[in-house]
Design a protein that fits this description.
Elements lengths: L24 E14 L2 E14 L3 E5 L6 H8 L7 E6 L2 E2 L5 H11 E4 L11 H11 L4 H14 L15 H13 L5 E5 L7 H17 L3 E5 L3 H4 L4 E6 L2 E5 L5
Parallel strand pairs: 3-8, 3-9, 6-7, 7-8
Antiparallel strand pairs: 1-2, 1-4, 4-5, 9-10
Amino acid sequence: MRPVLGAAAEETTAGGPLALGSRPLLLEVCDLRKEYATGHGRLVLFEGINFQVKRQEMLAIVGQSGAGKSTLLHILGALDTASGGEVYFGTTLLRSLSPNEAADFRNREIGYVWQFHYLLPEFTAAENVALPLLARGQSKKETMQEAMHWLSEVGLADRSTHRAGELSGGEQQRVSIARALVTKPKLLLADEPTGDLDTQTADTLFSLIERLHASYGLTSILVTHNLPLARRCGRVLRLAHGRVDELSPLAV
C-alpha cells in the first residue's frame, strides 16, 4: 500500500535542496494500466507500471515509437486518464480530480513542452509566454513582466516582439520552454522537445533545460528518442512491451 505523504513532503532544508537520496517524493505511479477498445477487442498499451520520482530529479523515458511514452506522459500530467492504477502528485490523487480541478492543477503544477511548439502565430513571443498567466486572470502588466523575465532566461529578451514565424525552430522551442515555466511549476514534462531540431541546436536546447532544471529546483521528465541526451539525465526508464525497466544512464 502506498505510504501517506505528510506535510514534510513539501519541505526542503533551509540551507538549500536536499540530497537526492533524502528528497521527498513528488510523483508516485502505482500499477498503472492503459488500454483501448479496438475493432479486434482490447489493446493493452501498458500495464503494471510502477515507479517513483523524487523532487528535483531529471528522468528520461525512452522506448520505440508506439510503446506508449507520450500516453504515459499525458497521464502523469493529468491530460489523460489511466484504465487502472493510480498516480499521486505529492498527496494529490490525480484520478480524484474533476475536469475543472484537473485544469487548475495543470496550470498551477505542470509545465509542458512538446515536440512542436504550438505558439499562436498572431501573438508575439512575449504574448505567447504570458498566456498561461493571463488564463489565471492576472493583470497584463504583471504577466508581461514575468514573460520578459523568462524570455531573458532562455536568451530571447531581444526577440520578445517577434511573432512565431519570425523565429527559428530553436528559438520557437525556447519560447515554448519559457511559456512552460512562467507559471513556476513543480514538474516539467517534455515530449521529444528536441525532436524537430538538428543535432547542434538540440544539444544547446537540452543544455538550457538542464540549466533551468537545476536553477529553479524543477522535477523534470523527458520523453526522448535521443539516447545521448537521455544519458545526461539522472535516471532513465525504458518503456517496452507494456512494461517499464530502469536502466543505468551509462547503459542506454
